[in-house]
Request: fold
Amino acid sequence: MTSRRAVLSAYAITGLMLALWAAPASAAPEIRNVNIRGLQIGATTTLTIDGTDLLPNPQIVMSLPIAAQTVQPNATATRVTIAVTLDKSVQPGMYNLWLGNANGISGKVVIAVDHLPQRAFATEVDALPVALHGTVASSTKLRTTFVGKKDQDILIEVEAKRLGGKLRPVLHLYDEAGTHIAWSMPSPALRGDTRLQIKLPAAGKYTIELHDLQYAALAPNHFRLKVGMWQFADQVFPVAVERGKPASLELIGNIATDQKITMTPSSLHGQAPIPWLDAAASSGLRPVVQVSQFPEVIETATKDALQQFPAIPSAINGRLSAVGEQDRYLLAVKSGDKLRFELFAERVGSPMDAILEIQNEKGGRLAVNDDAAGSSDPQLNYTVPAGVEKIVVAIKDVNGGGGRRCVYRIAVTKLNPSATVDFTLKLERDRHSVSQGDRLVMKVTADRRGYNGPIKLIFDRLPDGVQTQGDVIPAGATGVLLTLHGSGTKVAQALTSVRGESIGVEPKLIRFAADAAHPIAAMQPWLSREFGFALGQASRIGFDVKLGRLPADVHLVLGGKLQAPVRCVRPVGFDGPVRLTLVTSQAPPLRSEERRVGEECRSRWSP
Reply:
């Protein structure tokens, strides 16, 4: 046993009592690599996971129903092979995958789920369709072959960015004679991934070549190469719908325009995933519709008069259907109104490089904007001059583009920053493991924008035997040190969301904590709101902190220090170093660059 004195700086003393209660658990598992980043719905896929501290009793943890999973023989602490069978009811899409064991839960990795057979990358494909998994190292060119038929429609697609990787994939297709017949580059519509669509010109053997755009693949450089035919949807129209009202949605991809989904979104998150028209035939990112709190209307054709905005605030969802088209809408205003016009196109997968223009009724320009910070989408603040009762909002593509994919949403709201009442929540980590009989301190940070009251934290689910203490962020505080108490006696894991609810204001503000570092948070935002919690077996090491031994009249001054007695209880034979970490509920000051990036992230979508 060893006694130490921890030196604490005065600026970090907030939440000290909670922070020093935390006792370290045995090492939780860490995932370094998964050989196959995909699971087949209704079938068994065998995954090999490399990492550290993977034993004992490892198991896959996901938010979807797993029918069965079996750990294969000869598992080690650094490599585990698990055969996973998914239930037939699972919707295709991207999901978080975690590894839990008796000591806790790992960080998450993104994995694809659909009906395609999942295979490790090989130089020859036996049958289509298939999904091949591997990595591209540096300047490597990977090649695989398949046998095709004359006039066969084939999709060849790489998922890399959409799996949280950094590969910039380029595809080439060669026929049996070695003639280069097609290729595809990284596409913004696929978030930097690539897709090749072709009708094969002849029967025979075809070769697919995959490499990094700059022949310098960055880590992580994993990929999933899909070959065959499936349904996909890269966009949705309308872009946004009003919460609680039924809407008919068009999925834009290789799905017929007359096939639509009807749903009534009730999501509190601001975005909602859309079910597939044919789940058994679909693959790729789940299509997403934005959920708005004010009226959302769809562009309608009018012969003599301009379509009007229904109110302020409201939004119109439109499409530049023809090359060179310009859409114009009428808005009734009052002198002195301070308005914000915001257009969503690039941020929702549209190929448009839009220009937003405010005109008078005769078509004269009053204001114009091309790009806003962090996006090629325009945003414009406008104060209505005296005597003006109507203005025209005009939208066009700077390159004159048009077509089915050129969809947009133009929203108008009143600009009154002083009336903003809001907050966002952030957890410091995407997973937390507490040992039986121990306590773990986790930090929850609140970014307040006009709301300074208390915030109640609510977990939708926790592992059996895990309790929370201190689950209210006090009024005016920028965060709280919440304590997880491992009071149970059985190992358990659970995936949960954490929401904060305002206290004492109407309407109640409900905001969900998000993992800002999630690799595909912008594409599938619900994945960033999923956190892993675990109750692990009892720890073999602990701490006894006696702050009560300090003088009762101790005072800290800025820049001063405090010595706190800390007693470490070690098991027999454990003589390694032990690190103490002080956790504070105070928000550290941000550099100007960090503050700018945070504002850009928040501006990616506003309802």
The helical segments are 16-21, 592-602. The longest strand covers residues 439-449.
